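Hello again,

I reread your note about wanting to compare the complex against the isolated chains. To keep things tidy I'm splitting this into two emails, and this first one only covers the full assembly. Below are the input lines as submitted, including protein chains and any nucleic acid or small-molecule components. They are followed by the predicted structure of everything together. The single-chain runs will come separately.
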Amino acid sequence: MGLFLAAAQAASTAGHGAEAAHGAEAAASGLPQLATHTYASQIFWLAVAVAVMYLIFSRVALPRIAGLMEERRDAVEDDLDRAAELRRKAEDAQKAYEAALAEARAEAQKIAEQTRAEIQKQVDEAMAKADAEIAARTAEGEKRIAEIRASALEAVEAVAADVAAEIVAAILPAAADAERVKAAVAAKLKG
Amino acid sequence: MAATEHAQGGINAHPMEQFTIRPLFGDEVGLFTITNSTLWMFIAILAATALLVLPTRNGALVPTRMQLVAEGIYGFVRKMVDDTLGPEGRPFFPYIFTLFVFILMSNVLGLLPWSFTTTSHIAVTGVLALAVFISVTAIGFARHGLHFISLFWVSSAPTVALRCVLFVIEFISYFVRPLSHSVRLAGNMMAGHAVLKVFAAFVPAMGIAGIIPIGAMTGIYALELLVACVQAYIFTILTCVYLNDALHMH
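Full-complex prediction:
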């Protein structure tokens, strides 16, 4: 900047004279930036160049680059969406798997429970049957015991009557009445 | 001045000679004369086309390197326009983009040896800045009518007298805009190139010690590359800022 200002000061006086005495001299002796005879060409071609560049950019380069970047952003977003969907699907699959597992577990539990109940039932039945058999046998045994006892009692009674009759006959032959001895023994036994 | 140095055979520096506009055919420079300036403007167009149009031709979803550069430049200017102007800046985007790329290409191509820096000429930058100034003013009046004048009326100033003073200052500064806008760019380009040329003239004069100015030139060249890009950016961002005044006032 400082250099430019110093150079501009030095050239400004020369530039003024040069303008009158035609441009080529001014460029040679002073600052080329102040050679005003070149301004028209510079400005004209600047306008052309900027216009050409503007057309190239606004018609070709900028829409293309913007489109590319847009496309890429879309692609990335698409991929992210797809990834999110896949993740959701995986989560669903995981949930379904867990549900199936829980169901299977429940089923297994149920079957085990059922089997246990069935076995228990069978056991109970067998137990009941065995109990009934035991009871029946016990009852039969008791009946036989009662019968044996009864027959034994009868035998005792008969023996007692016989013995009593023998004793009575031996001691008091007159009083030997078989029937009355027997009745007396029966009464005694009952009492 | 230059002639005497030449005669002495000492330091042969013509730092301003590189800015001379020469017709490519013939001697006279008329309105339609094709000059070295014209040539380099069209080389700038070719370079911009090679950078922005050719790599995007096939439009790969996964960008190639050059396509990435083109998209980077596009995204850079797009962001600048969106940040300063908002959605209302959309219609101006192609022109602002053109402005940026034209200046960037001219500045950078100007750093090539034997090339010509079109943006080192006040006639070029002045027209670019005036075009911005005139269109911004026109857009301002078209959008806000005479209310656009209130851009100069600083209503946050405490007293009316102060506001009047500020009105004058703002008014002047508004009209100085195209001058500073254009001189900033042309001056930067010219100064950098002139400095490089001066240092280059030291090299043959210093003999073996000429390695010192060559080292300095390498550093300055890197700096100039930075300046070339930064000045293109500054010119463009200022265009956006001025346009923002016209679109949204304050």
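For quick reference: Chain A touches chain B through 46 residues (CB under 8 Å).

B.
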